[in-house]
Write a structure and sequence with these properties.
The protein has eleven helices and 16 strands. The chain is of the alpha+beta class. The strands form three sheets. Strands 11, 12, 13, 14, 15 and 16 form a six-stranded antiparallel sheet that branches. A five-stranded parallel sheet has the order 1-5-4-2-3, sandwiched between helices. A five-stranded antiparallel sheet has the order 9-8-7-6-10. The chain is globular and about 65 Å long.
């Protein structure tokens, strides 16, 4: 029996279950939102039990999946290591996680419970190559990529990266782990006409060749160093994208994380950095959203159009009710592209909803609970645009 998805409004007696790591702040935020909405306490089903083949569900329960991150034992089962700083192991993580969600869907369905999200979509969301191809097919503007889609060429080593960059005439690219997250294993690679190669990344290579995530962004300035890192990452699968020049705010590169719930952009935060990576844990800082809106307007654009790009990206994953979109503004603030669609992109503590979004005064978790209670689905058929930037 297949698990059903929930789209009908939930009553005040709804029994919610969150599959997550007990004690994790994501789980706590969601349970707080459930409690504040006057619903019965949300029950927690540990990822550890699910990954070990367990998981208990009951008829009538509504089941939400939360991120399995930030638990050493869960990491060990998924990646083969309990060291959260290690970079390698993402291919194993992907295989284990997608298999677990498929098993979980069967367990939930057999119990007569319902899932909030489609369990088949993580297989695409957590493969950057597949996600890029789906966005492009939907007419969402995305950076050019020579590795897009299931039929894209394999990237076995640095020589393949150099070859693909040359063939696509891309002197500046982001090389990403196909199944990575939080900028883990990402390299911003630059080449020039003289053959010089350098890369900016948070990856630290130990003397024994093992790779670790660092909170300090660093630059490798020789091709030998860059090649060694890429060669070590390649067995986990790599995705290559054109490095788009970003708009700036106060001299810092800027992009946005936009949360879309049931087809509507509800929350947005500006991220700025002096490095190519704007992730807040890598030294990025929150920027001024009002200034972004003013810059878009001054450039002759419309803020609503930027949000509409995010909503179109979310529409490409109709079975996932909440996603976090990484929106890349081009220099000049007139054009936008989508860099990532994050299944667990809602961790923005203290951020309340955008004006006119229906989530004013609510954080991302409260807005999701409200959406579950209302059963509203704001997804509509949108005009297909171009996928080039």
């Amino acid at each position: 029996m297949h698990a059903r998805l929930t789209h009908a409004p939930l009553g005040k007696s709804a029994r919610l279950v969150v599959v997550g790591n007990p004690g994790n702040r994501r789980v706590a935020y969601f349970r707080d939102a459930v409690r504040a909405a006057g619903l019965p306490e949300a029950r927690v089903e540990p990822w550890l039990d699910v990954l070990r083949g367990g998981g208990r569900f009951h008829p009538g329960e509504t089941v939400r999946l939360e991120s399995p991150g930030e638990d050493p034992e869960v990491e060990r089962l998924l990646r083969g290591t309990d060291d959260p700083t290690r970079v390698e192991g993402t291919a194993r993580w992907y295989a284990a996680f997608t298999a677990a969600t498929a098993r979980l869907a069967r367990t939930v369905g057999d119990a007569g419970a319902v899932l909030v999200d489609d369990p088949a979509e993580p297989a695409v969301l957590f493969d950057k190559r597949l996600a890029h191809a789906r966005l492009r097919a939907a007419g969402v503007p995305v950076p050019d990529s020579p590795t897009s889609g299931a039929a894209g060429p394999p990237v076995r080593d640095w020589a393949d990266v150099r070859s693909l960059m040359a063939a696509a005439e891309l002197p500046r690219v982001f090389v990403k782990l196909a199944h990575g997250s939080s900028a883990s294993g990402v390299l911003a690679v630059e080449t020039n006409g003289t053959g010089r190669v350098q890369a900016t990344t948070s990856v630290e290579r130990a003397p024994d060749g093992c790779l670790f995530n660092s909170l300090r962004v660093r630059r490798y300035t020789t091709e030998r160093e860059v090649a060694a890192i890429v060669d070590a990452l390649a067995p986990d699968g790599l995705h290559i994208e054109r490095w788009l020049p970003k708009a700036a705010q106060h001299g810092r590169a800027a992009d946005l994380r936009v949360v879309v719930i049931d087809g509507r952009a509800t929350h947005a935060v500006v991220r700025t950095s002096r490095s190519p990576m704007t992730n807040l844990h890598l030294g990025g800082a929150r920027g001024d959203l009002g200034a972004v809106r003013a810059a878009v307007s001054a450039a002759g654009g419309r803020w609503a159009d930027a949000l509409e790009v995010c909503e179109r990206a979310a529409d490409a994953f109709p079975g996932t009710r909440c996603v976090g979109i990484d929106l890349l503004p081009a220099v000049g603030w007139r054009r936008f592209a989508v860099g990532e669609v994050n299944a667990f992109g809602d961790l923005l503590p203290g951020l309340t909803g955008l004006p006119g979004s229906g989530a004013e005064g609510q954080d991302t978790y409260a807005a999701q609970v409200t959406a579950l209670l209302s059963g509203n689905n704001n997804r509509t058929t949108r005009t297909t645009g171009t996928s080039t930037t």
